[in-house]
Amino acid sequence: MDFQLKTLSIAQAATEKCDVLIVLVASGSSTSKDALSTLIADARKSADLPDKAGKLLALYRPAGVTAPRVVLASVGDGKPSSVRSTVIAAVNAAKGSNPKRVAVVFAQAADAAGVGGAVIAAADASYVYTTTKSKAESRTIRHLSIGVADAGPLRQAFDEATATVAGIELAKEWGNRPGNYCTPTLLADAAKNLAELPNIKCEVLGPKEVAKLGMGAFSAVAQGSAEPLRFIVLRYHGAPKEQAPVVLVGKGITFDTGGVSLKPAAEMDEMKFDMCGAASVLGVFRALGDIQPAINVIGLVPSCENMNDGHAVKPGDVVTSMSGQTIEVLNTDAEGRLILCDALTYAKRFAPAAVIDIATLTGACVVALGGVRSGLFSSDDVLAGALAAAGEESQDRCWRLPLDDDYAEGLKSNFADVANIAGRAGGAITAAKFLQRFTSDFPWAHLDIAGTAWKSGAAKGSTGRPVGLLLNYLLGQSRKGDIKSPARKARKARSAA
Ligand code: BES
Ligand code: MN
Ligand code: ZN
């Protein structure tokens, strides 16, 4: 889909050539006498277009308008979340006539958040997964133009939004692919393709290299599968190399059967989405390649299947992580934390400004927060605050949950330094407490996206979350300028002494 931002007054919008014209109308009235303003005023007067976000009025060949179909759409107070939900409703309504060209125009002044939100919402509503369908069914909406009174000041927000869409759609694509079309090797190939973009490099390690690094926890999860594991290292270089990077770590389980602690059959297909954390990291890099912000970012993706064969890790097995800590694998279905802990240990070598892991980690997080907000955990209040704010601003929200040490009680083991599960209570938190053991060298945050990365039921499919949140955070950091690395600073101070 291609996007265009245009300077278009509401009077000019009437002659815009497109299949469907969506007009976003905020509260308050206009006295303009052009065709669309008159339609809006009449609709308001007759109560056919209530002044409430999401209310639509579809018109066919209205007088004085070039587009054959017009959707008047109330955005109420015009706040970004209203624009977003209204654009989704309007594009869904517009889809009925299989339009190729859709224009979304703001009837009143638009701001950066509104334009960005409209682009992301329109793309979201028009997305179609096609890769494993035999018929050449495809997205009908090919061109989307956004019309605003003055495009100039909104250009940057628009460009960032279209790059974000490319990132979200890459994340959706890999999330949606079935396990046999998204193996660790294929995921690594997708990451390698990203190295075509400027300032992105990609390196991929296999089982031997990972074993040599001492990643005994990651290797143990992979050992029951015929598919070889992959450890993906992506680098985006947008700032001087002295500047400490932000490291993103994405859980890349391309299928989670549970292993010997086998999952029930119902809905097990949805465990193809267990690599959505990894997909969000790829999506972020896709967008960074477009936007080229002044920041350094590392992406780490431990990827394997969690399968069950004669070599599979067994409940009670003790494995040694790269950090040296031994782990008793009491439940082979708590595999995400096992692959992540080694990637977190690996992250230390980058002397990072911050490390953020993104994982479809626990069913307990789905119970706690549902599909609305991702779980946020952090040992660092500044980082937690920045991520929470980025979630609000991008409308890709999260909610902070606690990390009191008392929650780690249940992880005690008689046979290793730590067990990989605690009791049922507070399962999202105990998983985070497990990860926290591997993060003492840097500011760290964990996003549990088990509830938000995909939708179940009739609308089953990947959401591309939390690409929007992560990009908003990273762009915010790049605008702040130099990020100091606590680890690097400490090292410098030591060597100076
Ligand atoms: N990938 C799952 C988490 C998950 C389950 C996400 C259902 C979304 C929906 C993870 O690997 C897992 O199986 N976690 C277990 C942990 C338990 C064994 C402590 C869980 O949540 O049941
Ligand atoms: Mn599992
Ligand atoms: Zn899993």
Q: How would you characterize this protein structure?
A:
By secondary structure, the chain is of the alpha/beta class. The chain folds into 2 domains: 2-127 and 137-149, Leucine Aminopeptidase, subunit E, domain 1, CATH 3.40.220.10; 165-488, Zn peptidases (Aminopeptidase, 3-Layer(aba) Sandwich). Helix content is 35%, strand content 21%. The protein has 15 helices and 20 strands. It has helices at residues 10-13, 35-45, 80-94, 112-126, 155-176, 184-194, 207-212, 216-222, 276-291, 336-347, 363-369, 381-394, 427-436, 467-480, 486-496, and strands at residues 2-7, 20-26, 56-60, 69-76, 101-106, 143-148, 200-205, 230-237, 246-250, 252-256, 296-306, 318-320, 326-328, 354-359, 374-378, 398-400, 418-419, 444-448, 454-455, 461-462. Strands 7, 8, 9, 10, 11, 14, 15, 16 and 18 form a 9-stranded mixed sheet that branches. A 6-stranded mixed sheet has the order 1-6-5-2-4-3, with helices on both faces. A 3-stranded mixed sheet has the order 12-13-17. A hairpin with a 5-residue loop joins strand 12 and strand 13 (326-328). Helix 4 runs parallel beside helix 5 (155-176) and helix 10 (336-347) runs parallel beside helix 13 (427-436). The termini are far apart. Mean pLDDT is 96; it is low at 483-497. Bound molecules: ligand BES, manganese (II) ion and zinc ion. The site of manganese (II) ion (MN) has 5 residues, from loops. Zinc ion (ZN) binds at residues 253, 256, 274, 335-336.
Q: What labels would you give this structure?
A:
alpha/beta, Leucine Aminopeptidase, subunit E, domain 1, Aminopeptidase, 15 helices, 20 strands, binds ligand BES, binds manganese (II) ion, binds zinc ion
